[in-house]
DNA sequence: TCATTATATAAGCAAATGCTTAAATAAATT
DNA sequence: AATTTATTTAAGCATTTGCTTATATAATGA
């Protein structure tokens, strides 16, 4: 891909194109960070896990396996991704690992949860 | 996968498991809808497109191709997914198609944009 | 009408994703 | 120490995703 500005439309607003590039450059860190959170939450299984953790406080992989009717390894692999991203954390009690949300880690997620809980139109 | 409750932990809270299932059942439509939006916005290219549309009002595929340094077909395919999902719409002016956000269609997205614009910690 | 421009669509392919099953860890119980 | 339980990790595989290139459609202008 060429790097120079190349949109050939007669109406193309070169200043707008430059401004857009600058906007993205300025926000690139935020976009990258938020994009990762959205990609994680964009999987239905993970969204359910996050939503339930928000509502119940903490749950273990075995619980999720029951609730979501999925194998424990499948759950465990989803959990790992979210833990790696710093969205959730764990506490051990005997053999059981209780997972919970890392609070204040994602205001975007918290906004989503509030919408889901209110059971409003959420699109 | 078995359908009955099967978590065998001594501490397993059967009422909690039932409550979680009921919660998911109640919110399943919302979860499904929001999950699709998050999956779309969870791609960095699409997130940038949505972000720029929010900021600039409307832009055409050619603009995005320039700004994001990607081929027009690549852009066009991302746009299609978001249009199919009802997140964006288009207006024709001669040969050019101007795309814009469908307002009020996703409050979740709007929340994300406001965070990005403020350039705050967004995780 | 023919060429040009803007966009979309389709086919092909490499990479990423999300499951499965089997094996490894770790803690509790016997 | 050996067994059971909870969880993780790893390997394998089918599906999905997101690009590429080539082709189709649609509008403009010579």
From TrEMBL, chains A, B:
Q: Give the PROSITE patterns listed for this entry.
A: HTH_ARSR_2
- Name the UniProt key words of this record, in alphabetical order: DNA-binding, Transcription, Transcription regulation
Q: Which domain of life is it from?
A: Bacteria
Q: Name one GO molecular function term.
A: DNA binding
InterPro entries given for it?
ArsR-like_HTH, HTH_ArsR_DNA-bd_dom, HTH_MetalResp_TranReg, WH-like_DNA-bd_sf, WH_DNA-bd_sf
Pfam families in alphabetical order: HTH_5
Asked whether the UniProt record includes Iron among its keywords, one would answer no
Which parts of the sequence belong to the HTH arsR-type domain?
Answer: 26-120
Per its record, how is this protein called by name? Answer: Transcriptional regulator, ArsR family
């Amino acid at each position: 891909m060429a790097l120079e500005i190349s949109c050939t439309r007669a109406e193309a607003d070169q200043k707008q194109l430059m401004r857009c590039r600058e906007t993205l450059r300025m926000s690139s860190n935020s976009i990258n960070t938020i994009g990762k959170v959205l990609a994680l939450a964009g999987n239905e299984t993970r969204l359910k896990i996050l939503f339930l953790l928000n509502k119940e406080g903490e749950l273990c992989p075995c619980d999720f396996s029951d609730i979501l009717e999925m194998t424990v390894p499948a759950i465990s692999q989803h959990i790992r991704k979210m833990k790696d991203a710093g969205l959730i954390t764990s506490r051990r009690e005997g053999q059981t690992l209780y997972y919970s949300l890392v609070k204040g880690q994602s205001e975007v997620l918290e906004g989503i949860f509030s919408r889901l809980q209110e059971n409003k139109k959420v699109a």
